[in-house]
User: What shape does this take?
Amino acid sequence: MTNNTVLGGIDPEITDRLLTRRDAISRGAATSSKVAVGLAMASIPVALAALATDAFAATALPQDIVDVLNFALTLEYLESTFYDTGVGTSGLIPASDLAVFQQIMKHEDAHVAFLQGVLGSAAVAKPTFDFTAGGMFPDVFSSYATFQAVSQAFEDTGVRAYKGQAANLMSQPDILTAALQIHSVEARHAAEVRRLRGLDGWIIGTMGNLPAAVNAAVYGPGNPPTDFPAEDNTVQGGVNLASITNYGADPLSAAFDEPLDKATVLAIAGPFIVS
Assistant: This one.
């Protein structure tokens, strides 16, 4: 889970797209020396945001796309702030795992910068967070086990949130591609955090080994009720895979991450958002 730059932490295809824009801008006569220096470093989120604004023409985005991206940005603010705080808390993360969470932190910080760049002035402000979720996780930044559990909940939810919004971005192929690439990065985070907790890297049924109320909210059967099925679902494309294969429910459910709708994601994240 290592990358040479924050740009690389998003995904190679986005990197190529933005670096192409970087080269074009850096060759322009009107480019200021300050911007040129930032672009040359290629690892500064501010430079990434500036390039994203140019590459994706944020001012032309329809409102429904802006709404989806601001939803994603809110989740990325949540994760970025969580990892910034966790990595910055002395003694919380064992030295053996610190590099993993430092890399995840860099990715999440870059995702925030990228979405801010795409949205420009339409980007929502960063909320205030309570990572104890109103006292549900009072030791989130003093107990490594609790920190890992909350991290898993955030990452698994983020993966399914991006999947749930993919259809809403189909009118903007470049934005859809970027969102799905971020989705793939989030999936790798989720797999690694689950393995650090001694679990499989993928979701099996609705057992996430989280506190009961959190487990039900994140993995199903849906709290509040959702249009999307829970993680133990075996029906894909209208076909119950259990009826056409010899595999049991666990491997069939593990083969697919079920999407989450916006209302369900906000219900999961809501206790962590103060304002």
Remarks:
- The longest helix spans residues 63-87.
- The radius of gyration is 19 Å.
